[in-house]
């Protein structure tokens, strides 16, 4: 915890959650989990690529589709490992989660778990964290992965999606998510400021699988994507979007959210790398 520069209780909770996420990754790496699955999503982007915001969930995707995937065997290992760091863990099946949490799952073909952890060293609300695990059991074709390593609590290999595939997945969320999530657009700034390429094959297959273009033979390119994202940007209430992301970024960076507007995001859109 000392390596995190935290200036509020919220930031300390976020830091504790991230430490726990890394323990869970290392624990999963002790099994054959990463022979079957790759890490994706905002937490992946933060831990392995340097995204400057915290993320609550741990999202994974099957390397090959398997609708019968079960978390049980892997979580037994996680329970044993986190116990050695002073945690006690409760697991809730997705089927027991109320409908408002179900809506937080973007993809339909997923198997999810909620992990509720109580840190033994804390007695206040600060010690209580909740982490959602989600795996896509029927992923789009065309995704690419690479091998990375976490170095806490010990060196562990983790298969992760490459940045172009992660960006494609994020764009799918931007175009298809049924509710406004400011964190999606914060990540969009991160990707475009780095001129990250887009895995168009993966994005196309994802769009054909779920969302407004589901079960169509849609074919996309840079021009199509630019037009669709432009339409989306113009339609958004940017003050509302900024409110969603505020608690996930450091206090010293929150002032930048006051500048969020359609003009800012249209400018970022123009930075998207053609590929």
From TrEMBL:
Gene3D superfamilies: JHP933, nucleotidyltransferase-like core domain. This is Nucleotidyl transferase AbiEii/AbiGii toxin family protein. It comes from the Bacteria. It comes from Sphaerochaeta globosa (strain ATCC BAA-1886 / DSM 22777 / Buddy).
């Amino acid at each position: 915890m000392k390596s995190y520069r935290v200036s509020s209780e919220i930031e300390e909770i976020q830091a504790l959650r991230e430490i726990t996420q890394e323990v869970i990754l290392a624990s999963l790496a002790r099994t054959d989990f990463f022979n079957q699955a790759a890490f994706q999503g905002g937490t992946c982007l933060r831990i392995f690529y340097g995204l400057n915001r915290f993320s609550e969930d741990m999202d994974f995707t099957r390397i090959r589709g398997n609708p019968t995937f079960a978390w049980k065997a892997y979580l037994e290992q996680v329970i044993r490992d986190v116990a050695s760091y002073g945690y006690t863990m409760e697991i809730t099946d997705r089927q027991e989660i109320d409908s408002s949490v179900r809506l937080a799952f973007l993809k339909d073909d997923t198997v999810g778990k909620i992990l509720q952890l109580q840190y033994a060293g804390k007695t206040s609300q600060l010690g209580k964290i909740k982490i959602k695990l989600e795996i896509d059991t029927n992923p789009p074709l065309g995704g690419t992965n690479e091998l990375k390593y976490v170095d806490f609590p010990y060196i562990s290999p983790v298969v992760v999606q490459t940045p172009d595939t992660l960006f494609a997945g994020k764009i799918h969320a931007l175009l298809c998510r049924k509710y406004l999530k400011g964190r999606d657009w914060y990540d969009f700034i991160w990707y475009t400021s780095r001129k990250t390429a887009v895995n168009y094959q993966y994005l196309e297959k994802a769009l054909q699988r779920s969302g407004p273009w589901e079960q169509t033979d849609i074919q996309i390119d840079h021009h199509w994507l630019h037009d669709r994202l432009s339409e989306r940007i113009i339609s958004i209430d940017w003050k509302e979007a900024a409110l969603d992301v505020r608690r996930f970024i450091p206090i010293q960076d929150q002032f930048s959210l006051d500048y969020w507007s359609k003009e800012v995001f249209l400018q970022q859109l123009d930075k998207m790398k053609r590929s």
